[in-house]
């Protein structure tokens, strides 16, 4: 009996969604699915093309970075996922996080390479978050030499701490010079947020190209759009 069958399948299905949503080419992305009760996540194996993946090829890792089960080498970004689950989910800041996605989608990467946070220029962004999508600083040389992927996770956590951001409300981030990470209440939702992030970055880039001095959306409109979808009196969608 495979005690982790559903976790493997969740991670497998979510990884296939990366390619379906055109968020990465070749093997440029990974998704993990987290079992908070066991402190274990299933993640894509490193360098394996999406059409070669199976539920059985997913690798199981705990929040301390130990491989629990799996015949293949886990994603090179595993330690970043590990830190985020340990600090955000298991750490109690955002206990609902059950999935993390990392891609190299073009528009999100463009903002990351420019080392710029993405302002809330319009209601599409406001529907999914009330704050600018944060971009970290560049990682320093010592951190890169130490343990690059683990320090990437630490850099994300540090950015949220320094800017007093709640990972339960801000579910996406850009790592300077690198690319986007997103998370959600499931692996599938983390991919959904990755797709939203890419589209918002695309819209924001076009806005900036049309007007380099474009101002963010007024706060009262931002909060109106957030509240109508997520607030206590939300009325978007079906009951």
């Amino acid at each position: 009996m495979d005690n982790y069958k559903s976790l493997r399948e969740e991670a497998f299905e979510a990884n296939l969604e990366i390619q379906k949503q055109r968020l990465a080419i070749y093997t440029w992305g990974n998704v993990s699915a987290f079992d908070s009760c066991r402190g274990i996540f299933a993640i894509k194996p490193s360098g394996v093309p999406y059409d070669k993946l199976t539920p059985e090829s997913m690798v199981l890792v705990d929040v301390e970075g130990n491989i629990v089960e799996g015949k293949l080498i886990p994603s090179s970004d595993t330690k970043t996922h590990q830190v985020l689950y340990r600090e955000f989910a298991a750490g109690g800041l955002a206990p609902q996080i059950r999935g993390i996605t990392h891609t190299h989608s073009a528009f999100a990467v463009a903002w990351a390479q420019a080392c710029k946070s993405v302002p809330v220029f319009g209601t599409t962004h406001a529907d999914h978050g009330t704050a600018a999508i944060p971009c970290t600083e560049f990682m320093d040389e010592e951190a890169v030499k130490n343990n690059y992927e683990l320090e990437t996770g630490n850099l994300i956590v540090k950015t949220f701490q320094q800017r007093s951001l709640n990972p339960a409300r801000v579910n996406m981030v850009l790592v300077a010079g690198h690319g986007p990470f997103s998370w959600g209440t499931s692996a599938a939702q983390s991919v959904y947020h990755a797709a939203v992030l890419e589209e918002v970055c695309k819209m924001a880039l076009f806005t900036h190209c049309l007007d380099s001095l474009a101002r963010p959306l007024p706060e009262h409109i931002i909060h109106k759009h957030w509240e109508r979808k997520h607030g206590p009196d939300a009325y978007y969608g079906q009951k």
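The domain at 5-116+134-215 is CATH 3.40.225.10 (L-fuculose-1-phosphate Aldolase). Strands lie at 29-35, 40-43, 59-62, 67-69, 99-103, 172-175, 179-184.
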